[in-house]
């Protein structure tokens, strides 16, 4: 039996549709884990559902693992997974998804982003959706963080056409069918709602008051902001051009070939009608470079299209919302 089959059998034997699996990855900052578990379990315990807590330690957290081992889970299930080294938060979440036994999976950060008392309302909001993303509102953090967040989400809307207002919040409630269809890697966990929305799942935002502990000013290294921008461009390509690479590379290649052709045309006209020498003009090299780059990019898009065509039968970019069969009664 494959690993996926083992996970399915494990969920079938242990899980139930009314329970919730809570995944808490530890990769960067964290609050006191004992207090955090008590706060989360007390708030979610009011839903009356069976709870499975999964802490995934992304390498190098031996002291935190010891702290978690000393927690009394009470009536809830508690599982601690320690990775051999740092693999990133996407990998930690994926491992948590594999270990989850319930149909509803809730991801929570290792520090409070929202007031825990509002978590039961998030559970109720999943009734008409496949994924619910918490939006921290009203906000208590600094004005600078709010402005930078709005600027980031403005770029996000322009690039992906997805109208999310707090993609950075790690509080998300997800149905199992979404996890079976959407794969994340690298730093794509931040853009999980966009990838799920692209697949056709119903993704909604739910306002939750921001935790008062988040009120302080948070300033990151310049490299962090650059990484976020690069990740955003990566998601732009994944969302818009994964199944049609020729449209992206073809547009860029065609633009370069057109620009290069115009430059070369102007240079030739100047040579024959204005007696301007070509041998010592950088514009000739620039035009030739644009044409060569354009041809290469266009060819790269064609190769991508051939690869997509070859594997088209195995690719699935949609999600079925509902299927209703009306069988004709026998004898009529």
> What's the number of domains?
2
Range of helix content: 40-55%
Tally the beta strands: 7
The CATH superfamily name of the largest domain is: Spore Coat Polysaccharide Biosynthesis Protein SpsA, Chain A
Overall 3D geometry?
elongated
CATH C-level class of the largest domain is Alpha Beta
> What class, by secondary structure content?
alpha/beta
Discrete helix count: 11
Low-pLDDT stretches are none
Largest sheet: 7 strands, mixed
State the strand order across the main sheet. 3-2-1-4-6-5-7
Q: In sequence order, what are the helices and strands, one letter per element?
A: HEHEHEHEHEHEHHEHHH
Q: State the CATH topology of the largest domain.
A: Spore Coat Polysaccharide Biosynthesis Protein SpsA, Chain A
The first-to-last residue Cα distance is 45 Å
Radius of gyration: 26 Å
CATH architecture of the largest domain: Alpha-Beta Complex
What is the percentage of strand-forming residues?
Answer: 5-15%
Tell me, rounded to a whole number, the average pLDDT.
89
